[in-house]
Amino acid sequence: MEGLDFIKACSAIGAGIAMIAGVGPGIGQGFAAGKGAEAVGRQPEAQSDIIRTMLLGAAVAETTGIYGLIVALILLFANPFF
């Protein structure tokens, strides 16, 4: 029974570490949104191009956080070591 408890504990710690992956996309998206607003302030006529590019970049950045969430859910609920 000790081995199973150790695996559960390590899985929980691993899931927590995997969720740290959400910090990077949050910082990156905030930075991109700030720069996008700055660019629209400088060139209002290019607003549609700037927003389209910013949203595409945000979507790509968000995939990192989603991958971290999927790894955490696998470690918590679909652990093959049980």
TrEMBL record:
<feature type="binding site">
    <location>
        <position position="1"/>
    </location>
    <ligand>
        <name>Mn(2+)</name>
    </ligand>
</feature>
<comment type="function">
    <text>F(1)F(0) ATP synthase produces ATP from ADP in the presence of a proton or sodium gradient. F-type ATPases consist of two structural domains, F(1) containing the extramembraneous catalytic core and F(0) containing the membrane proton channel, linked together by a central stalk and a peripheral stalk. During catalysis, ATP synthesis in the catalytic domain of F(1) is coupled via a rotary mechanism of the central stalk subunits to proton translocation.</text>
</comment>
<dbReference type="InterPro" id="IPR020537">
    <property type="entry name" value="ATP_synth_F0_csu_DDCD_BS"/>
</dbReference>
<feature type="modified residue" description="N-formylmethionine">
    <location>
        <position position="1"/>
    </location>
</feature>
<feature type="transmembrane region" description="Helical">
    <location>
        <begin position="6"/>
        <end position="33"/>
    </location>
</feature>
<protein>
    <recommendedName>
        <fullName>ATP synthase subunit c</fullName>
    </recommendedName>
</protein>
<dbReference type="GO" id="GO:0046933">
    <property type="term" value="F:proton-transporting ATP synthase activity, rotational mechanism"/>
</dbReference>
<keyword id="KW-0406">Ion transport</keyword>
<dbReference type="GO" id="GO:0008289">
    <property type="term" value="F:lipid binding"/>
</dbReference>
<keyword id="KW-0472">Membrane</keyword>
<dbReference type="GO" id="GO:0045259">
    <property type="term" value="C:proton-transporting ATP synthase complex"/>
</dbReference>
<comment type="similarity">
    <text>Belongs to the ATPase C chain family.</text>
</comment>
<dbReference type="GO" id="GO:0005886">
    <property type="term" value="C:plasma membrane"/>
</dbReference>
<dbReference type="Pfam" id="PF00137">
    <property type="entry name" value="ATP-synt_C"/>
</dbReference>
<keyword id="KW-0375">Hydrogen ion transport</keyword>
<dbReference type="InterPro" id="IPR005953">
    <property type="entry name" value="ATP_synth_csu_bac/chlpt"/>
</dbReference>
<keyword id="KW-0812">Transmembrane</keyword>
<keyword id="KW-0378">Hydrolase</keyword>
<feature type="site" description="Reversibly protonated during proton transport">
    <location>
        <position position="62"/>
    </location>
</feature>
<keyword id="KW-0066">ATP synthesis</keyword>
<dbReference type="InterPro" id="IPR000454">
    <property type="entry name" value="ATP_synth_F0_csu"/>
</dbReference>
<keyword id="KW-0813">Transport</keyword>
<dbReference type="GO" id="GO:0016787">
    <property type="term" value="F:hydrolase activity"/>
</dbReference>
<dbReference type="InterPro" id="IPR002379">
    <property type="entry name" value="ATPase_proteolipid_c-like_dom"/>
</dbReference>
<comment type="function">
    <text>Key component of the F(0) channel; it plays a direct role in translocation across the membrane. A homomeric c-ring of between 10-14 subunits forms the central stalk rotor element with the F(1) delta and epsilon subunits.</text>
</comment>
<keyword id="KW-0138">CF(0)</keyword>
<keyword id="KW-0479">Metal-binding</keyword>
<feature type="binding site">
    <location>
        <position position="2"/>
    </location>
    <ligand>
        <name>Mn(2+)</name>
    </ligand>
</feature>
<keyword id="KW-0446">Lipid-binding</keyword>
<dbReference type="GO" id="GO:0033177">
    <property type="term" value="C:proton-transporting two-sector ATPase complex, proton-transporting domain"/>
</dbReference>
<keyword id="KW-1133">Transmembrane helix</keyword>
<keyword id="KW-1003">Cell membrane</keyword>
<dbReference type="InterPro" id="IPR035921">
    <property type="entry name" value="F/V-ATP_Csub_sf"/>
</dbReference>
<feature type="transmembrane region" description="Helical">
    <location>
        <begin position="54"/>
        <end position="78"/>
    </location>
</feature>
<dbReference type="GO" id="GO:0046872">
    <property type="term" value="F:metal ion binding"/>
</dbReference>
<feature type="domain" description="V-ATPase proteolipid subunit C-like">
    <location>
        <begin position="13"/>
        <end position="75"/>
    </location>
</feature>
<comment type="subunit">
    <text>F-type ATPases have 2 components, F(1) - the catalytic core - and F(0) - the membrane proton channel. F(1) has five subunits: alpha(3), beta(3), gamma(1), delta(1), epsilon(1). F(0) has three main subunits: a(1), b(2) and c(10-14). The alpha and beta chains form an alternating ring which encloses part of the gamma chain. F(1) is attached to F(0) by a central stalk formed by the gamma and epsilon chains, while a peripheral stalk is formed by the delta and b chains.</text>
</comment>
